[in-house]
Structure formats: structure tokens, C-alpha cells
Amino acid sequence: MLILPSRQTMRARPIETERLLLLPIDASDGPEIWNAVSGSRVTLQRWLPWVQFHTDPAASTRFAEACAADWDQGRALRFVIRERSHRAFAGVVGLESCVHMHRSCELGYWLRKEATGRGLMTEASRAVLDFAFQQMGAHRVRVAAATDNPASLAVIGRLGFRFEGIARQAEWCDGRWLDHGVFALIGTDPR
């Protein structure tokens, strides 16, 4: 079984990296999530099908509330990424689709456009993977990215994921089908 700390514990003692703080998403994060999605819509909607449904600030609040409920129910652990130097909201990284019986989950992430190109997602994802394997007792973490999304594929490559195959037409997104490269890490894989 996966071991999940409470949101309150993680908010009191967030995951820290050299440049980042990772805190469980809380309902109070809704306005910042809205501003990030709204300001990065053109960039995000190309790769993330949920962006088209994120149409007003209330959608961000509902998302933040759902994140808290998902954590409390053991379904997913999603973190706000904040830059340590000024606490600015940079994006979200999470462990989705937690399957306790198999000790597995899926890595998911996005950054606001102003935070891209600086290695923040690699840093945040590496910290979340360490947390998954060392603290949660995960055995396997899967990740998928569109085969024509070089930025996301580069993050996956830097994290040491192993390629498992192509999921053809895996997602309808922004008016087109996306093929996904599927990758995984096992806790014993070198990283």
C-alpha cells in the first residue's frame, strides 16, 4: 500500500528543493491557478485537454477543492510549485491515479508560460519522484506526453524514465488527436 501523509502535514513541511517549494493544493490556491491558466491558455491548451473547460475563476476553485478531496481520499497528490525566492506560483506537479494495491501512480505537470525554460519542472518532478519512491513507497510511476511535445519529452528524459511504447490517438486535445509516448520508472531503476 502507498503511504500518504496528510495535506496538513505537507503544508506545514512542504517539499523543498534548491529553488522551489511544493505544497499540497488548497482551495485558497484557486485564484493563482486561474491567473496562471488564463495567462498561459494558448500554450497550455495545445497539450492539456482540460484547459478548454477552465473557463472562469470558479473553475479553478472547484479544481483546487477537488485536489484536496482527491488527496484526502488517496486518489491523487497534487502540489503547487512556488519559487522559494519570492513565493511566486509557477505551476502544478502531481502524482495522479494512485493505485494502492500496485503501489503505482502517474506523474502529471504543467507550468505557467513565464516559468518555462529554466529547468523548474525537472527540479519539481525530480523532488516529487523522490517523495513517491522514498516516502510513499511507490513501486512504479508512469508518465505520458504527446509525441510532438519536445519540452515535456525533454523533462521525461532528464528524469530517467524508460520508454514503454506509443499510445496512438490517446487524447483529443485542441482539435486534434495526440499520440502519447508512454514511459515509466520502477523504484529500483537507476536515475
Structural commentary:
This protein is globular. Helices cover 32% and strands 33% of the residues. The longest helix has 16 residues, at 57-72. The chain has one domain: Aminopeptidase (3-Layer(aba) Sandwich), CATH 3.40.630. α2 packs across α4. The protein has helices at residues 7-12, 30-39, 41-45, 57-72, 120-135, 150-158, and strands spanning 15-16, 20-24, 77-83, 89-99, 104-111, 140-146, 162-173, 176-186. Keywords: Transferase.
Please outline the helices and strands.
Layout: H1 7-12, E1 15-16, E2 20-24, H2 30-39, H3 41-45, H4 57-72, E3 77-83, E4 89-99, E5 104-111, H5 120-135, E6 140-146, H6 150-158, E7 162-173, E8 176-186
Parallel strand pairs: 5-6
Antiparallel strand pairs: 1-2, 2-3, 3-4, 4-5, 6-8, 7-8
Helix pairs in contact: 2-4
**Strand composition percent:** 25-35%
From the alpha carbons, calculate the radius of gyration and give it in angstroms.
16 Å
Oligomer: single chain
CATH topology: Aminopeptidase
Order of helices and strands: HEEHHHEEEHEHEE
In the residues, how many domains can be counted? Answer: 1
Largest sheet report: 8 strands, mixed
> How many separate helices?
6
Q: What share of the residues lie within helices?
A: 25-40%
Q: Which structural class is indicated by helix and strand composition?
A: alpha+beta
Question: What is the averaged pLDDT score?
Answer: 96
